[in-house]
Each structure stands twice: as C-alpha cells, then as structure tokens.
Design a protein that fits this description.
Blueprint lengths: L10 H6 L14 H18 L3 H9 L4 H43 L1
Length: 108
C-alpha cells in the first residue's frame, strides 16, 4: 500500500465509524440569522459589481470614505470568521453522510 493510500479510509472503514450527536439549537438559525447572512451576501454582490475605479469613486462619495471602506472591510472579515465555523459543521456533516452512505451500501 502506498503512503498516499493510507490517508483514505475504505468503504468498510467508513461504514464502521461511529459518532455522537451534536446538539445545536435550531432557533439560532431562524429568520434573523437568514436576514443577516443575506444582508452581507447582498453587500458583497453589490460591491463586486464595481471595478477598482468605480469602487473607489463609490467610497469617495461617502462622508468619511476611509472610515466607511474600513468598516465594510471589518464587517466582511467578521462574517468570514463567523462562516468558518459553519464550514467546519458542513464538513463534519458531509463526513457523517459518507459514513452513513457506506453503511447503507454495506447493509443493502
């Protein structure tokens, strides 16, 4: 077996893996959560539509252009940090689905 092959589990190994439940309050992901994530996504989409000159012009039209640009940057960075926790949860869920799919294939 090559060293690279040792990094991957077999279908039988995936099927044999176990995991405990993770208790997450679904109320944390209600309409206000969706609205907040959507607002940041809409902001990003609106800013991505500008080229460098247009984006500079947009912020130069603000009362405090440097302050506004840095505030938007900070907000986007906070959202990135926040979403990283969700990426980890999605990766964990995807791994669990592979375990279950392997189990379903083995039991069929």
């Amino acid at each position: 077996m090559a060293d690279d092959d040792a990094l991957f589990a077999t279908a039988e190994q995936w099927a044999a893996m176990t995991f405990a439940p993770v208790l997450i309050d679904p109320d944390k992901f209600g309409p206000s959560w969706e609205q907040a994530r959507g607002a940041v996504a809409r902001t990003a989409i609106s800013l991505l539509r500008f080229d460098d000159r247009e984006l500079t012009r947009f912020f130069m039209e603000q009362a405090e252009p440097l302050h506004e640009a840095l505030e938007v940057h900070a907000g986007l960075e906070r959202e990135i940090d926040y979403l990283k926790t969700h990426v980890e949860a999605l990766e964990m869920t995807a791994t669990r689905m592979l375990c279950v799919a392997s189990r379903c294939a083995a039991l069929k």
